[in-house]
Specification:
Layout lengths: L2 H15 L19 E6 L2 E8 L4 E5 L13 H4 L4 E5 L16 H14 L5 E6 L1 H12 L4 E7 L9 H7 L2 H18 L2 H4 L1 H8 L11 H7 L8 H10 L13 E6 L8 H9 L3 E6 L6 H4 L1 H12 L15 E2 L2
Parallel strand pairs: 3-4, 3-5, 5-6, 6-7, 7-8, 8-9
Antiparallel strand pairs: 1-2, 2-4
Helix pairs in contact: 3-4
Length: about 325
């Protein structure tokens, strides 16, 4: 191949890596997921989990109004060399409501109990939004459980002020109610799933360009919306301060954010990096709250580089950019 041809391939690969949304046919569409789903009886309730692959254990924890399917664009990639477990948190997805009152501490204890049930001593943890909050709480309360932590637009900082703002104003409250209502409708009717505009409305708060995401992927996401744990989990996040305890996180931590995040401001990434001693961040341009779905190729590559670092390494792999191209 000529030098010009090789250059063209490099440019093409880079373009695919930074494309918004999936490139081509996604791997998850060719997997029989029913073979990898199972119920776990945990803390006197049934919990739905997905498990696939072999190797070191890796947990995916979804955010508010989410479900294990939030990670469809990522699970096949990481299952090549990891034992991947993606959960439906109690009160979300197909899992039952918890026996105890929903709290961030109880959710962290649930993951701790699940690891015991699965015979896992420690694992790498990847959490989006509320899932990042829970991953951080697990690393604080049970540091031996978390080998490496990936915070994807993690909640827990700016959300401290929502409780006050909900008392003095209606902006956040109105957004939350609207988001909840659309999700509630989606979970009880196939109308949202069938209509592209309604699917885009459901994802408008979390994606920079929801209409550019594939219908098959967005249809899977509505199954996690409108679940009974939403309101209690939102209140639990608002009521539980995280900021002053972040310095207790000792494991290597990778902070991933979208610069157009409408739910959790990108400035929070700076605070997480400042307060967690062994951490570094990466910000993706023209990207919203669900980075793992909006930039799956780049996300998978960057996070894989972090997870495979040797303990003495301090930087991501050489190809990991500070900002992904739009």
């Amino acid at each position: 191949m000529s030098a010009l041809g090789k250059l063209a391939n490099v440019v093409s690969d880079t373009s695919k890596m930074d494309q918004y949304g999936p490139v081509g046919r996604s791997e998850w569409m060719d997997i029989d997921w029913q073979q990898h789903l199972r119920w776990i009886r945990l803390r006197d309730r049934w919990m739905n989990i997905m498990e696939i692959g072999e190797g070191p254990p890796l947990f995916f924890i979804h955010g508010l109004s989410g479900c294990w399917q939030n990670w469809l664009e990522n699970i096949p990639h990481f299952a090549r060399d990891h034992r991947v477990i993606a959960v439906d948190l109690p009160g979300f997805g197909a899992s039952e409501m918890p026996a105890e009152e929903i709290s961030m501490t109880e959710y962290a204890e649930t993951i701790d109990s699940l690891m015991t049930e699965l015979g896992i001593d420690s694992a790498k943890i990847i959490g989006n939004s509320m899932g990042g909050f829970i991953g951080a709480e697990l690393a604080i309360q049970h540091p031996a459980r978390v080998e490496r932590l990936v915070l994807v637009a993690a909640a827990g900082l700016s959300i401290e002020y929502i409780r006050t703002q909900r008392t003095h104003g209606l902006r956040h409250h109105a957004e939350n109610v609207a988001f909840f209502y659309i999700g509630w409708l989606a979970s009880r009717s196939d109308t949202v799933a069938k209509r592209r505009r309604l699917r885009s409305a459901l994802l408008l708060l979390v994606a920079a360009h929801p209409a550019r995401l594939p219908p098959a992927l967005t249809i899977e996401q509505v199954s996690g919306s409108g679940k009974p744990g939403f309101s209690d989990a939102l209140d639990a996040m608002c009521a539980y301060p995280l900021r002053d305890r972040l310095e207790k996180i000792a494991c290597p931590t990778f902070i991933v954010w979208g610069e157009k995040d409408r739910l959790v401001p990108v400035k929070d990434a700076d605070v997480f990096e400042e307060l967690i001693s062994d951490s570094r961040k990466i910000i993706y341009k023209d990207t919203g709250h669900i980075v793992m779905m909006e930039r799956p190729a780049r996300f998978n590559a960057d996070v894989s580089a972090f997870l495979h670092e040797e303990a003495t390494e301090q930087e991501p792999a050489p190809h990991a950019p500070v900002h992904a191209a739009s």
